[in-house]
Amino acid sequence: EAIALELPPGRILALVGPSGCGKTTLLHLCAGLLTLQTGLLHNGFVSPAVMFQQPRLLPWKSVSQNVELGARGNRSAKPDEWLERVGLHGVSDTLPHRLSGGMAQRVALARALIGQPQVLLLDEPFGALDALTKMQMQDLLAETTQAVGAAADDPLRGRTGEVAAAHRLEGQQAAAGRDGQRQVVVVGPLI
């Protein structure tokens, strides 16, 4: 069916719906990872970043090297600073197999943020995190996507939009309902 979404910079859009309703497919289309079979997709974001359900870290690269992959060749990007922001100080030289699932997800988040994307496409990004860390990472995302409230020197301040997909409504309500800058869109019937 037809779907029309608009995401101005600094806004967050949460897609909520049951398994199989097309949330991941929609995110992959927006990221250019899939080709649209019919219809029209207009995506004005030049530099999207995708955070998948699984961290998808390269096992032969260190944590810092995995984060650096998201920098898109920007030599001034500092992986250790982003690792610090996601609460992973001191693991730069660690290989991914030594990380817990939650730590690996936070590395993937740092990799997504370091490239200063215009839009973050997040597919169930915090499933492996404990409740406290999940709230902290949601707050970090809010800081980097809001035009107001982020640090003045934050390179993403006011520039980034975020689209997140989830199966459960309550997690997205927490992420999407705090400041009026975010909205929840239900994709398919909620059971």
Description:
With 191 residues, the protein is α/β, with parallel strands linked by helices. Helix content is 31%, strand content 13%. Strands 2-3-4-1-5 form a five-stranded parallel sheet, with helices on both faces. Strand 3, helix 5 (131-145) and strand 4 form a beta-alpha-beta unit. Helix 3 (79-85) crosses helix 4 (101-114). The radius of gyration is 16 Å and the shape is globular.
Brief write-up:
The chain is an alpha/beta fold and 191 residues long. Helix content is 31%, strand content 13%.
Average pLDDT confidence is 76
**Extended strand count:** 5
Tell me the structural class: alpha/beta
Q: What is the general shape?
A: globular
Please summarize the sheet with the most strands: 5 strands, parallel
SSE string, helices as H and strands as E: EHEHHHEHEHE
Largest sheet strand order: 2-3-4-1-5
Global Rg? 16 Å
Instruction: Give the proportion of residues in helices.
Output: 25-40%
Q: How widely separated are the two ends?
A: 19 Å
